[in-house]
Amino acid sequence: MTLNIRDYGWNDTFAAAKESFQHEGFVPARVLVEQKNAYRLASESGELHGELSGKLRFEALSRIDLPAVGDWVLVDARPEEGKATIHAVLPRSSFFSRKSAGTVPEQQIIASNIDTVFLVSALNRDFNLRRMERYLVMAYESGANPVFVLTKADLSEDAADKKRQVEEIAFGVPVHVVSAFEQSGIEELAPYLGAGKTVVLLGSSGAGKSTLTNVLLGAEVQVVSHVREDDDRGRHTTTHRELFPLPSGALLIDTPGMRELQLWEASESNDHGFPDIEALARTCRFNDCSHQSEPGCAVQAAIEGGELDEARFASYQKLLRELAFMERKGNKVLEKAARDKWKKVTQQHKKTKY
Ligand SMILES: Nc1nc2c(ncn2[C@@H]2O[C@H](COP(=O)(O)OP(=O)(O)OP(=O)(O)O)[C@@H](O)[C@H]2O)c(=O)[nH]1
Ligand SMILES: [Zn+2]
To answer: Record-annotated residues binding GTP (predicted)?
Structure first.
């Protein structure tokens, strides 16, 4: 079985990056699944089981240097055995990462080379603008383009109003209202789901990500079952992180991996942004207190009194700055800022010897 890697998102940028490696005989492959340093890859010679070369394994300075779902890697392919040895990871155009817990916190790639991230939120009582802001910051840091998808429109009587509220916090970011149950609004997502485009769904548990995934998958059930005819392993049984093709030709990364990001959400923001700090701020003497050196500042008093962690206050301010920046500059500049941020990481990544 052969396949066309362009169907898996291969493009001229990756092709140019490959050229700079000048390794005779290595071919590109995309990581579909990663489990404990074993990989399933899509290559021109079909799906292969990949293993890391000894050199890549030992020269990796951290986990960020190792392949993750969505990565393009260069491999020595042995199609007759169904196997490949992974020798290098091509620079990532975007990625989600998280810091893994442990004595030495380490950055770990959750998913990479993503074009669009659907920030999925339900329009019921889970609706939470502060949380959406956090997700948006995370999306910008990834380098992927954020799109808000507000789900369960059938449960909401003020969907249009909520849509407007989201548009206000997320200047220039598209917002779409859908209902998986009523199959409404789904067609608005088509522009992001073109052939070779990679999408991930991100959002809290219960937001409707799996249901939406099924709708996107089921849009052309015929095509799906056709694809499966010569694949008796059944490619959509997902208990792990996996990249798989949608009938539209787009690639969806699904998602215990994205659930891991929710841990980030839970630990960093407590689900409600910074309610403790916001409560303190309401008791400052001045309504427009900047919590720096104003008299009667309850926030500074709490820091001095040891009730508020200074680092937590610093990250609150960082969030406010980032959001203010977004609102001021609009989407274009933000995209550049996000891009510069990940470029730096990618450059660090490049310094590693292959
Ligand atoms: N009314 C309504 N309910 C929905 C809709 N989409 C999903 N649900 C329900 O919302 C619940 C959660 O949906 P899931 O798709 O499992 O949510 P999820 O985001 O994948 O959740 P996790 O798998 O925990 O991350 C289920 O009971 C769904 O039936 C919708 O469009 N309308
Ligand atoms: Zn104050």
So the answer is: 151-154, 203-211
Q: CA-to-CA distance for 101 and 314, rounded, in angstroms?
A: 21
CA-closest candidate to residue 65, choices 87, 38, 32, 36: 87
Segment holding 340, helix H or strand E: helix 331-351
Percent of the chain, pLDDT > 90? 41
- Specify the pairing of strand 106-112 against strand 175-177: unpaired
**235 vs 95, more confident:** 95
Say what the pLDDT of residue 23 is. Answer: 73
210 touches ligand 1 (CB under 6 Å)? yes
Average pLDDT, the chain: 80
Give 215 Cα–ligand 1 centroid separation in angstroms: 11
The reply to whether ligand 1 has any atom less than 6 angstroms from the CB of 209 is yes
- Residue 304 has what DSSP assignment? H
Burial 280-293 (b: 16+ CB within 10 A, else e): bbeebeeeebebee
Tokens of 294: 């104003």
Main-chain dihedrals φ then ψ at residue 40, nearest 5 degrees: -110, 130
pLDDT above 60 for 354: no
Choose the residue to mutate in 120, 176, 211 for probing ligand 1, maximizing ligand atoms within 8 Å of C-beta.
Answer: 211
Complex confidence, ipTM: 0.95
Q: Which one of 1.20.1420.30, 3.40.50.1000, 2.60.120.10, 3.40.50.300 gives the CATH number of domain 110-259? A: 3.40.50.300
Name the residue ranges covered by the structural domains of the chain: 5-91, 110-259, 267-345
- Which residues are paired to 136 by β-bridges? none
Binned at pLDDT 50, 70 and 90, residue 326 comes out as: low
